[in-house]
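Supplementary material to the annual report.
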Amino acid sequence: MKPFQTLVGVRKPLPDIAAVIRDRLPEIAPALADVSHIEVTCREDREDGSTLLINEWRVDPKLPGPVRQAISDEMLGWNDHAVWTVDLTECTWRIEPFFMPGAIHCAGATRFEPAMGGHGTKAIFSGEFAVDASALAKIPPGLRGAAVSAVETIVGSMVPRNFRHTIEAAARLLD
Amino acid sequence: MTSAAATLAVVTDDAASPTDLLDRAASAIGFARMVKRALRRKGNNGEVIVVPAMDGFASGSPAIADPALVEHLIDRLYDLGASSVRVGATEGSDALWAENRDVFMRADLLGYRYFTPAGREYDIVDLAEDAKHSPFAAESVLAGISLSAALQKAAFRIVFAANRTDTADGYALTLQTLLSVLPGRDKESLYFRQRDPGAVITALLDAVPIDAAFIDAYVSSHGHGGGARPLAFETRTIIAASDPLVADQAGALKMGLDPQASRLWHAPPADVEVRTSGSVLPYDGWVNVTPIVREAARRRQKDAALDRSVRPFLQQVDTSLFPFRNEANARINTWIEPFLSVDDATVTGRQVFALLEMILAQIAEGRAAWQILFAKDAITRRPAALNVRAQDIDEDRWAGVSPTIASQRALLSGCTADAEGLRWRMVDGAVLFDCVRRYPVPFDAFVAAVPVHRTIQFMNDYIGGEAATLASDEAGRVTRQLERNLYLPQPNFTVLLGGDIIDVTKIETVHYAGDRHVMAWQTLLSANGSALADDGLVEFAAVGDDTVVAIFARQHFRQPPLVEAFDLTLLPDLHAWLVTDAYRRFASRTFANLEAVLEGRDVRIGKPAAQVGTDEPLPIDGLLALAERLRNELPDDWIESLRARFDWTRKDHLAPDRIDAHGFRHFKTVPQRSYAGSPTHSAGSGAAA
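Predicted assembly:
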């Protein structure tokens, strides 16, 4: 398991920024590099006031030729299962990639806190990522541990950076 | 601004709380009286700006003024009648490599709550956001730099520093904190590398006088690493003063330092009476940055690219609050951290830090020498504001320029020019020389393309400066101007021996006749002492259908100590050879530059200097952007493409028939298909280098 955490501050009030992240994610997609589109495939407003969302992310990253050839377009993306609290201060999420389904575990929570005397928001994004080594069948068994570690490290730094870009793009949407 | 009487309080008490110490220090300098007097002034807006040291990288860092103390002071200001109190800062260069470094988020993460312990609200402001108007005079070192309107209009201004050591300046107290009001992220380039930081502080204090200065020395930051590697040390002291210079003087003395250790320092006027309470005896157990590290850090900071690259590596950062923008910086910082631990117990850490600074200083100087000798376009140009005031120059001085230069030039009469039109001789330790070049260009066309008053800017190795026109003739042509010029060390090779930039401020007069334009100049000042004299004259004259350019100069540059130690005049032949070679180069390159200007080409060497509002990417970001571009532009199978290019064994690759002694590859002509479909046959060979 590779844990990751990042803190992003924006000069927008919590209710505004969190509402954009929850409700207007598809509008943010064009501002994110390598993201083709985001589609809300399920939304359920629960009795306790929380909201369940499933967002389908489709990406088109620039990958090395051999890697790109091994991954079909359908595999490039993930389902993001998110549950938002009624006060928009927390979102717990889980990601199901279309590539190697079942072999990748990625889950966590995003906490939103008021900042800058109520003029801004702190978004604390934390989670963990793991790859099931046995899923890497094409890699010699002796090298799988190192490969898993490398993938986890790369993803562990990439995911928080993309989260920052998402929050910043959401803030721009409010300008 | 320094007043005739200043007050200073140094309050130390092991049993007192930080806020109690602050109240006692404020009371001892008559803070309440000062604030009330300012707020009673006619037309004041009742606003107070507090500029705290806020450039730390962790909550609770001893390298920042404690936000709780600042908020306590804000409550006192409201009690005294302030209508609003704002905490002001600007972004620094760290915003280029660390996240959450904008003023608002940084303030929040460092502990500012936007309301005081008594529940009053205050605002945090980015002083760059409302910086629209420059209060600085044309001859100021900060001419053209805008300052926050809120700061300029405030009824009362306070600087609240942390008590900390600094790797380059020994200490960083209120004067260093005051720099944070200036706009522009790359403050090291804008206010240290491009300008004299001491002059910057003087200009700032003239434009926005500071009414009170505090130093939070309750928990200080001492040690070799300065603000980059803050080391907490309980000194349980608050220093307060009515003048930041007085506060810094006391702060430096408490550290056991000569205040002159800092480039920002200048002494308060001698006639200022400082009413002091408390002791300026040094703190027991205080650890300063060693002089050798200070010196190395300053040398390293001269190289903008290197300095900007290594700051993220050297800085101790709480990455949970301020993550690195760039993964490479994060990894190097993490890797280097264990080697640089600089607490009292790890002498090794200190020594590694000192060694690293010395290595970086050597690299910086090596790069500078390389650029001056072999890669002048890589040098960053240096803006240099005029540092003399026109009103300080009397009429006699203006009138005397031309006759003085004419009499100096007369001393060359009788000297024979060499084959390239150069003649020179030594007079009073200065080199007098002149050189002439004829251009086959009509005079009118020549002077239209090459304005004579700008000639100095076209001379060889000019890397920056500024000129101000003070008088023009009826045709609008410049007749009097003041000019500051910066040149690379002369001769260039002296950079290897410690040669410095030549920095000369000149008074210049220009005369125009029908077939002759002449500019004469005399040295007024050399800010860095690099020139004892750099006087001269340039003359454009019509000769038939051509233009003749004559340049005369009397130059006496201060050489580096190692060169000065050898009196080359004891070896007259060598000396003559060196002087002739240097001035031949100067003449040929300057004349070539004039020719280029005639053709409309840009002759400036170097790349533009940093400017407020435009951030040059960090070198590492530039490299990553290049890698990204390659990643996008190279074909997916670029390895295969590259391999195929050099794989002579491939059947579809045309192998040369033979390679001749000059490296030309010869091929047999390949039968080509005609458009009619029938192959044509020809014999012979082609060649490709």
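Residues 149 and 195 of chain B are 23 Å apart (CA to CA).
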